[in-house]
Amino acid sequence: MQENDQGGFQPRDIAVALSLLTRLPLRLPDAAYARGAAAAWAYPLAGLVLGLISGLAGWAVAGIGAGLAGIVAIAVTVILSGAMHEDGLADVADGFWGGWDRDRRLEIMKDSSIGSYGTMALILGFAARWWALTTLFTAGHGLTAAVAVGVLSRAGMPVLMAALPNARAGGLSRSVGRPAPRIAAVAVAQALALAVAMAGWSAIVAAVVSAGAVAGLALIARAKIGGQTGDVLGASQQISEITCLAVFVAVWG
User: Fold this and answer.
1) Rg (CA), the chain
2) Using CA atoms, how far apart are residues 216 and 12, in angstroms rounded to an integer?
3) Cβ(208)–Cβ(153) below 8 Å
4) Can you list the alpha helix ranges (DSSP code H) found in 64-180?
5) CB 156 within 8 A of CB 88
6) Which residues contact 161 (CB under 8 A, 6 or more apart)?
7) Can you name the residues that pair with 228 across neighbouring β-strands?
């Protein structure tokens, strides 16, 4: 798959990113999607929107209880994103550890049913996120963390797309294409700038720890299936979100 770097950076890419990564009711012409991975620089901006909406929703009910705020923030994120990243995490857990060879792993990941590995991954993932958000809303930093994490957790996706080959001959990730390195670099730089503006220099620590976790996933994905898929990208967002939240709890909790 050739790198997609057509036409530089276009404002409409933000709408494309929101259309791909959320369930917001956006109506775009087919031509807008032709840029494919060239629009990946805007993925962190889609995370900014999701983080802001979910964080505000949690903040609005934080007076009733921090635990409720955490649940509401997660629920709003899941609804607005269509649970696509959670689905990716579950599929990766089932496929990577439920299959004995590459072909079987990819087959399991494509199956719409969920297995025990995927179920446990979702339970543990939701528990970790709820614990972290509850702690952060208790400390008065829930909204700030939600926005910063929304941005940072979607910066690794373009990097994985650029760094790893597509593991499938088809699928969403292959249809979008692979971004040029400068597209991925802009996504990361933009995410860092926005996160630091929101959360201060602790966002740099969160970004470094998150990058290590995503790099670990990339190594496992290359060993297990020979590259990345849309499920791997979704799993990377979840892993990044959890690690960033954990760092913010360590700093502010």
Assistant:
1) 17
2) 33
3) no
4) 66-81, 84-98, 102-110, 116-138, 142-152, 156-163, 172-176
5) no
6) 37, 40, 173, 176, 177, 178, 179, 184, 228, 233
7) 166
Structure tokens, 6: 């057509």
Q: By the 8 A CB rule, do 152 and 203 touch?
A: yes
β-bridge mates for residue 179, sequence order: 4
Q: What secondary structure, in 3-state letters, does 198-244 show?
A: HHCCHHHHHHHHHHHHHHHHHHHHHHHHCCECHHHHHHHHHHHHHHH
Cα 71–Cα 232–Cα 21 angle in degrees, nearest 5:
55
Question: Do 250 and 203 form a contact (C-beta atoms < 8 A)?
Answer: no
Question: Which residue in the block uniquely carries the two structure tokens 């590459």?
Answer: 102
Cα dihedral: 171, 52, 247, 128 (round 10): -70
Backbone angles phi, psi at 179, to 5 degrees: -70, 150
Is 3:178 a contact under the CB 8 Å cutoff?
yes
Structure pTM?
0.93
Indicate the SS3 state at residue 3.
strand
Residue 2's pLDDT is 47
Structure confidence by residue, pLDDT tens digits, 71-104: 999 999 999 999 999 999 999 999 999 999 999 9
Q: Which residue shows structure tokens 């964080």?
A: 55
